């Protein structure tokens, strides 16, 4: 093979499928007829890209009509569209016109507020291959707005990211073959109740609820069968106010297959903490965010291989006995926002070291005197790795450079100039690394 142009069609397709920039694909389409035939479908796969303009859909519609008028391609260009993002300024008639010309679209995100029942019917009718549907703006709809969704036989993911009034019923969702569902209340104070929700979705594996769920959890306890999602494996619950939620325990008992759990913005009492260890027997990844003072770990989490604590407080006993409670975790990292752990000399039960620690959660701009306060000798800097290791029996990682990351935590981690780690590298480690406790004050 003397040049890239001599490569087989299969190899060229593999190469072009890995080109992310729309501008680069456009240049490929200008090389010759072969490159044109392969690049055009990829260019139209996600027209406009992520950074679309306010007038994107009208321009797209004009392009579709122009291509049809001049017979630029034997296959309608709209048949290549797989992803569409509709901005707030788009007119409904433009949305309908593009939808009519993109029968194979799989991902659709709509930012329009003025949607009605007829619009949803048009989407369900004209997008039979739709797999992911997202509403990215708040809107007011009728009781029958979501009724056409069960007719989307391929719909697997639904994101309702902005519901104004929590009294909108979602009963029709129980007839959808959904696997992922995300609901958000848009910061309003309403509570979802039995009038809002549904009897269950038997195919659902991922559930993300970012609103006050007290009414829904209490409603679950009144049902003959509390197992609404029999194959649920990933659960995220976010509440914007503090309180004790014992209604979580019955929900956990009814959904023991949960492997990934994230709880945010709620007080976690000892009953909930015990339930996490005893009822969620398949739990592997646990994330606790902004939950105030955590009760001590009293049970062993036999399968948990990743623990993330962000914006939470934890007592000394839970920290010292971390290795005992989490036998599959071997590493510990403390974010820079947590400056030091203070100690008072001690109680023989925990050895000669400490009987009380308090995490000093302060901004990185605090003065040195604020960090060390009364007695420098009674404080341990978070950078004091050997001391932390001796207490927790975990290997302390400071993530100061690429070489400081253990080999088994470097999955798909790029090696950068001078071995530096960027913020995105740390985020990648936090999301993918197994066997790691990540404690961070920040969000």
From TrEMBL:
Domain of life according to the entry: Eukaryota
Matching SUPFAM superfamilies: RNI-like
Protein name in the entry: Uncharacterized protein
Gene: ABSGL_07612.1 scaffold 8901
């Amino acid at each position: 093979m003397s040049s890239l142009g001599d490569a087989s069609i299969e190899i060229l397709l593999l190469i072009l499928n890995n080109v992310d920039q729309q501008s680069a694909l456009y240049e490929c389409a200008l090389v010759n007829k072969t490159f044109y035939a392969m690049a055009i479908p990829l260019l139209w796969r996600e027209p406009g890209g992520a950074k679309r303009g306010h007038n994107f859909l009208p321009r797209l519609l004009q392009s579709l009509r122009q291509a049809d008028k001049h017979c630029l391609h034997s296959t309608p260009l709209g048949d290549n569209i797989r992803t569409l993002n509709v901005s707030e300024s788009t007119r409904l008639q433009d949305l309908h016109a593009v939808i009519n010309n993109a029968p194979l679209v799989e991902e659709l995100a709509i930012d329009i507020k003025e949607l009605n029942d007829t619009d949803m019917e048009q989407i369900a009718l004209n997008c039979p291959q739709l797999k992911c549907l997202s509403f990215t703006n708040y809107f007011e709809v009728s009781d029958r707005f979501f009724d056409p969704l069960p007719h989307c036989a391929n719909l697997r993911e639904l994101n309702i990211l902005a519901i104004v009034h929590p009294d909108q019923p979602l009963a029709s969702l129980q007839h959808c073959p959904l696997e992922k569902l995300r609901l958000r209340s848009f910061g309003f104070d309403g509570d979802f109740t039995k009038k809002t929700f549904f009897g269950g979705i038997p195919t659902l594996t991922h559930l993300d609820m970012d609103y006050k769920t007290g009414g829904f959890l209490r409603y679950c306890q009144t049902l003959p069968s509390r197992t609404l999602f029999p194959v649920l494996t990933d659960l995220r619950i976010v509440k914007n106010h503090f309180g004790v939620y014992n209604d979580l325990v019955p929900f956990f008992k009814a959904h023991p297959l949960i492997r990934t759990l994230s709880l945010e913005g709620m007080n976690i009492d000892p009953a909930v903490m015990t339930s996490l260890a005893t009822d969620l027997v398949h739990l592997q990844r646990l994330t606790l965010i902004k939950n105030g003072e955590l009760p001590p770990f009293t049970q062993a989490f036999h399968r948990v291989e990743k623990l993330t604590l962000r914006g939470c407080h934890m007592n000394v006993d839970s920290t010292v006995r971390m290795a005992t409670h989490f036998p599959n975790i071997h590493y510990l990292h403390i974010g820079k926002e947590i400056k030091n752990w203070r100690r008072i000399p001690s109680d023989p039960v925990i050895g000669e070291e400490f009987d009380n620690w308090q995490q000093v959660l302060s901004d990185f701009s605090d003065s040195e005197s604020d960090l060390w306060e009364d007695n420098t000798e009674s404080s341990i800097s978070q950078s004091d790795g050997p001391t932390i290791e001796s207490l927790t029996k975990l290997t302390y990682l400071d993530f100061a450079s690429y070489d400081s990351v253990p080999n088994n935590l470097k999955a798909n981690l790029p090696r950068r100039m001078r071995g530096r780690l960027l913020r995105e590298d740390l985020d990648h480690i936090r999301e993918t690394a197994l066997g790691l406790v990540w404690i961070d004050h920040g969000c």
